[in-house]
Fold this protein.
Amino acid sequence: MTWAERTLAAMLDRVAATEAAVGTRWPLFADPETGEWTTTGRGSWAGGFWAGLLNLRATLGTDPAARTAARTAARRRASALAPWTGADTATRGLIFWYGTAFTDLGDLRAAAADALLAAYDPDLGVIPWGAAFGGPRELARVDSLPGLVPLLGGAGPEGLRVMRHHLDRHVDLVTRGAPPIPAWRAVPDGDWLSHPDPPAGWSRTVPWLALALADACHAQAQADTACTGAACGARVDPDDQVASHASAGAQHADAVLMDPLSLPGVRRILEGLGATPTGGDTSAVAIEAVAMLKLADLAARPDHDARMGRANRAGHVGDHGHLRGRAERMLRDLVADHVREGRLLDGCYDRHRGVATRHELVWGDFFLALGLAMITGAITPFAC
């Protein structure tokens, strides 16, 4: 076995042990010394990552009995997330995209997408952060992008349109500052003011944004492939073919043909991948490595020059081999320096408040396992 395969196997064993230990509760972060988890009763915004880890174990495990047990647990966990569809939070993207990965729970994913579409505020141009976890409701936060972007990107023309508005607004706001500013509050005059939580320089700002940009490019490539003549025609009202085709074409042009990598401010973000300070947060490194593997996959596609050539000439995307090589080195360094017995340590839950600043984090484990599964060829970069 390679170093990546050995580490992935150890992490999936840790998943099984944790599921047995926490009962009906949901793991959030674990003590670096004892490995004991701090848990939550309903999963919180990170519940989807735990269901996702169980689904990875069910998908990648080699023992049939263990895979069956993991699949049963994963389905139970994902189904238990259903009440979150009605919660006022943009983190429903995180919860339901990663929580339903590698499952057949398409109805649950569709319900989550519908709920997010209903929450879209056209005046703000975003799905607001929401009030489910306290604080101001009308926030634009960069951590509303991961999960939400691919979830809406696969929800038809309207989902793609809202996804692009949400992404474009966040890119504009986040890239207004140096370092990037992860949170902004809407004010009555229609403008936005930077919000102090999370603070500027937050470790996960660039990784979350890079991940969303890669997922947006993939979603739009799929839409471009699907939304051709007959395919678009299949979605329109047969009672008014001319008007409906025109409407579908307008949606397609508005939401699909604009390349996310050409948005102002993106070049500075992507050129810093692999070198951006992450504040000692290993979960941020794991997220960034996964984003780079996805960008590498985009760069390697046969239609890359046609779809992404404009951005690539400006150095936005980079060479496939270069991106993949950097991502693999980042993952190898994480494993060598921070993984012990299948646990990714030295993650930071909330440095601003001094909460779990060098711990094992459920999403850190998830993205490290996801990255390892990608570089070993166990899954494709956009399987999740």
Notes: Residues 205-226 form the longest helix (22 residues). Strands lie at 26-30, 37-40, 139-141, 183-186, 192-194, 339-340, 343-344, 360-361. The chain has one domain: 43-319. The first strand starts at residue 26 and ends at 30.
